[in-house]
Design a protein that fits this description.
This protein is mainly beta. The protein has three domains: about 15-160, no CATH class; about 170-385, no CATH class; about 390-470, Immunoglobulin-like, CATH 2.60.40. Helices cover about 0% and strands about 55% of the residues. About 30% of the residues are buried. Mean pLDDT is about 85; it is low at about 380-390.
Amino acid sequence: MAIHAQDWSPILTNQKMNYKHSGSDAITNTFWITSKLWTNNDTTYFFNKAVKDDDNPNIILRDQLQFFTEYVKKHANGVFVFATPENYLIRSLANMGNVWMFNNGTEAEVTSITEEVVFGVQDSVKIISLSDGNELKLSKSFGLTKFPDFENGGYFELAGIQDTEFGEQVLDFWGIFNYEVGDILQRQYHYSFPGYTHSHVLKVLINSKEIINNEINYSVYSLTAGYDYWVGGDYNYYSNANYGELNYSYYGDPIANKFQNELLLLEDYPYCSPNGDDFLFARISTYLDENNLKVKHWGKHFNGDDGLYYETDPESDILNALPYVNCITEGPKGMTYTESLGITLMYNADDESEDYFYLMGYVKDGVTVGTVYPNSYFITGVEESKSIYSNKYIIYPNPAEDWLYIKPINSNNSETYNFELQNIIGQIIREESNIESSLYAIDISDFKAGVYFYQIEDKSGNIQQEKIIIK
């Protein structure tokens, strides 16, 4: 594949370069060229910009430079000058022992030229040592594979070239919705507004897969069990099973293809800002989950941190964190994409309604993660077991902070029961078995703030499930 740099270029001018900061498990920076400028025999390449945190926790700054500065100018004889706000000079064609001024009195020297395997390719590599103790590593085919973090210490290391077979890739549309035949996904859905509640569990088995142009099509067998409830009325329980399809279409530049610390304009929510007419923005965060799967999230997290911002002056770089309680922002808003699992969390709440779904559990390659109910839970009909949704226990306080208490509604209830606490993707993070106390206390002081879901199962197999917020 013709992606390689020419003449020891430190950057790939037609590719996206993914870097990790030393010690990070996930890709922290992605660079690409947004524009070019030709002047005589010189070429100037301008880098993409990102969002950065300000010292004020309620402010982020957009259009900020990354560690490769604002642009790099390529001169004759392999001289590259990275500029604004700092200046770094790299002589890419320098030979062993050559010395030059790198930046502000710091000298650079080629101390090694060797052959290494880079992303499975045998390549020539130069080590450029700096007089301040740092070093750069330059690959002939892939550019700078190691660059110092002059501001915070450590290094940025090249992890991969996006959309190629070389190295690690940032999660995108094709990786997110890449289910395999035999996979099982189970989601919990919930919608409520004053006087009405809808809740159901959906279990999906992937039967076949077909990719046609920009579409991924699956045939599936789905099982659903749930209920509707109007205040003052009865619960309407239902269950069904059917064969159907899942269709995902790639179009334009989907949100799922954004990179770490890119800014997303939410055109559907301009009325949510404090001033009523400011636009609403979300930053993209990428990370690895507990199962080492790539995750991409936008919007406000469950603990209210990060995610949603608005601008008061379009000419300014400053974006203000959206107050946690404002307009229709009583609850978090956002979406989480997970590698090979699709959209694993959607949450949209306001002062009157709540709408969310989350991945309770899944089965891949025969391994079950989280909670996946047996088919009998669905096909026998939940109307035959209404106690699945009939609460027999009180869980309080909610929100909780240090302790969570479980108390049977019927004080004469002497049945033992089991308790599970799950995170938002259905992973069990706390289990208690054979509880028989009339008031049982659970220490949650070590848990991170956020939304969790508990499940209580009594000795008859009846299940009680609800959401718990931990502050």
